[in-house]
Amino acid sequence: MSVCISIMAKSSTDKALELLRYLPRVALNNLGPNPNNKALKKKKPRRGQHGGKTHGYGTKGSGQRQSYMRIGMESGATPFYLRIPCEPYHKGHHLRRQYPPLSLKQLQLMIDTGRLDPLQPIDLTAICNTSLYFLDPSERHFGIQLTDEGLDSFKAQVNIEVQHASESVIAAIEMNGGLITTAYYDVASLFAAMNPPRFFKKGVPIPKRHLPPEDVVEYYTNPANRGYLADPSKVAEERLSLAQKYGYQLPNIAEDPKWELLTLRKDPRQIFYGLEPGWVVNIREKKILKPKDEKLQEYYRS
Questions:
Q1: Does position 230 have pLDDT exceeding 90, yes or no?
Q2: What are phi and psi for residue 103, nearest 5 degrees?
Q3: b or e along 46-78 (b: 16 or more beta carbons within 10 Å of the residue's beta carbon)?
Q4: What digits encode the pLDDT tens for the residues 18-76?
């Protein structure tokens, strides 16, 4: 009797092993649930006198009548937005101009990795073309704010134009023999400066940059902020004053071999270096079309 059982067991084992040779490998994608699992059995909703009772509308009250309280209602108590005092510095926050930050550490990294050329002027267009810095004018972004992170490790000599910078950042750039300018860009100019090829493909003239609005005129005319509308003689005085304040020797730019690069500036109405407002850039034919009408030229210059 025992001999028969062992023969039967052996034959069933062989059959199982033979079956496994032709079956696919066991994996998560070919495993199914236990057919006897009670949790997988879907219960049908019962209605009315058959055990449904509330027909899916809950018990008495607002749950039954679907008359829920409005958003912010606290069952008759004074809502939180009336209990908390008003904070006036939040007023109009959705309308304020935003300046996404770019640190000196990131700027130095872009230069070291070849994303930016220190032998060329660095502006909004050059920084956006690195694909490491992004602006969205539809989110009230109005340019670059250069921050002082990596202040001690910044060693590059650059001629840079940003939209906002602190006093310590200005000192760090000028200590290395560079120059910095803060300039305002309106929304239309930002769209053109962020992606020049996309703008040139439209075939429209380069717009002139608008002057800053009244609330930021004081910032961009202040020589301490290196504003692009400030008096150059007063900017030179502020450069010397800042060097005395931070205790470093101000480099003589006039004797620097990069003098032409460092003193290169845009016109207040200009968006791109070397391109005037009113010109049309034809990328396909590689031509620059300039207006011949004198009144049109005067419009873009004024």
A1: yes
A2: -85, 160
A3: eeeeeeeeeeeeeeeeeeeeeeeeeeeeeeeee
A4: 887 888 787 888 777 777 776 666 666 655 555 566 666 667 777 677 677 888 888 88
Instruction: Return the closest-CA partner of residue 178 out of 104, 113, 103, 109.
Output: 104
The secondary structure element, H or E, covering residue 262 is: helix 259-262
β-strand partners of 124:
none
Give the CA distances from residue 96 to residues 140, 215, 219, in Å, rounded to whole numbers and listed in that order.
7, 11, 15
* pTM of model > 0.85: no
Angle between helices 167-175 and 232-246 (to 10 degrees): 90
Structure tokens at 244: 């005395």
Q: Which two tokens stand for residue 214?
A: 């009244």
User: Which residues have C-beta within 8 Å of that of residue 261, sequence separation ≥ 6?
Assistant: 119, 120, 121, 159
| Alpha carbon separation from 292 to 16, 70, 209, 228, 282 (Å, rounded) | 91, 64, 21, 29, 17
| pLDDT value for 52 | 61
At residue 28's C-alpha, the angle toward residues 25 and 34, to 5°, is: 105
Spatial separation of the C-alpha atoms in residues 123 and 127, rounded to whole Å: 6
The 10s digit of each residue's pLDDT in 192-219 is 999 999 999 999 999 999 999 999 999 9
